[in-house]
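Let us practice reading a record.
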Amino acid sequence: MTALSLHPDRFFPADPATRKIARELFALVEHLPILSPHGHTDPKWFAADAPFEDATSLLLWPDHYVLRMLYSQGIAFEDLGIGDAAADRRKVWRLFGANYHLFRGTPSRLWLDHVFATVFGLTERLDARTADSYFDAIAAALATPAFRPRALFKRFNIEKLATTEGALDALGDHDVLARDWPGRVITTYRPDDVVDPDGANFTGNVESFGAVTGEATSTWQGYLAAHRIRRAYFRSRGATATDHGHPSAQSAELSAAEGQALLDRLLAGRREAGDAELFRAAMLTEMAKMSLEDGMTMQIHPGSFRNHNPQLFAQYGPNAGADIPVAMDYVRALKPLLDAVGNRADFTLILFTLDESTYARELAPLAGHYPCLKLGPAWWFHDSPEGMMRFRRMTTETAGFYNTAGFNDDTRAFLSIPARHDLARRIDAAWLAELVATHRLGEDEAQELVVALAYGLAKAAYKL
C-alpha cells in the first residue's frame, strides 16, 4: 500500500528562502474562516441536514471534472452508473479507484486527496486495492452525526456560503434556513432561465416569470419590472449578488421601443439572426442598471461552449463534463455596459474568464481603469496551482491586488471547499513570497495582502 499524505510545504516555492517566507505568510491565513461567496452547492443539503449516502453519489457522480477525465479515457457513463439510481455504487467506486491514476497532476487529484486525508482521515492512496476499504470507511463516516451537512459546515469553519438559484426558484430551502440557521447560507440570483432565448423553454419560462411576479412579461417594461421583483425576493433571502453565465460578455443598450420589438420577435417565434445574443447583451446592461438601484454585486461568467457533445447531452443532460472554453472579447463587448455605468464607484461588476489570453491584454487593463470592475479569480479549467499563478503573474502589474475579488470556490462539491481555499491561500502565499524575496514588496505589505486575498477582498466585493 502507498501512503496518502499531504506535504506541509505543498505548492510552496522550491527555493528554501522563498519557501520560508511562504510558510510564514500561509500561517497567517491557514485557519481564517472560509467565505464561499459564489458556488453551486445544494441548499437542500443544509435545510434538510440529511446524511449523505455514499462515496459514489457524493464524490464521483456530481463532479464533472472527474467525469470528463474518465470519459476521455473511454470509460462509458453507463459503466459509471450515471443516471441509474439502481447502479451498484460499490462496483462504480471500484472502477473509479482502478482508474484514479488518470488524475495524476490534475486539480481533481489534489482536491480529492485533501478530502480523503483531512475529512475522512484515510492514510492509504486510492487505487484498485484500496477502493473497497475507502468505500466502507466513507460509508461508516457518513452514517455518523459528525458528517451531516451542518456539522461539516461548522467543522470546515465556513463563515458564509452562497448557493445559486434560477429566477423561477421558490427558494423554499432558503426559507427553512432562515428559520433554522439565519445568515450563514444565502442565495444568488441567476436569471439565465428567463434571459437566454437559446435556453430550454425560454417562452414558457418568461410566461411563468409573469405568473410568479404578477407582471405582464410580454411587455418590455413588465419584463424588467419582474426582474426587480425577483431580485428583491432573492435579497430578502440573503442574496448580495447576481450571476450571469452567458456565452459571451456582449452587452448592448436598447431603447424601450427596441427592447419591446426584440421581445415581441422572440416570444412570437419570429427571431432574426443575432436576436438571442442581442437580448442577452441588452439584459447584461439592464442588470447592471438594476444593481445600481439595489446594490447587488454583479458577476459575469462567460465563455463556455456548453454541452459541446450533443450525444452525451441528449442522454445525460448538462454538467456532464462536455463544456469547452472559447475565445473571448471583453474590451468591445462590455463597452455599451461600461458607457452606461462603468464610471460608478457604487457598482461592483466581477469579471471571470476561461480565456487566459485576455488576462493581460484586456481584463487587467479594464479593471485597472474602471471604478466598477473587479477581476474574479482563476476559474473552472484554471482553478489550479498553475492557473492561479498565471492569473497573478498576468494581472497584478496592471490591475494590482485591490482590483481583484479575492477567492471563491465556485463548486458543486461541498467537501472540496476547504481543499480549494487551502490551495488558493497557498498559491497566494507563494506568489507574495516571491515578491518579497525579489524585493518588490515589503514583508509587512505581504502580510496585509495575504489576509486580504484570503478573506477581506471577497467580503468587500460581495458585500458580506
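A brief commentary: The chain has 20 helices and eleven strands.
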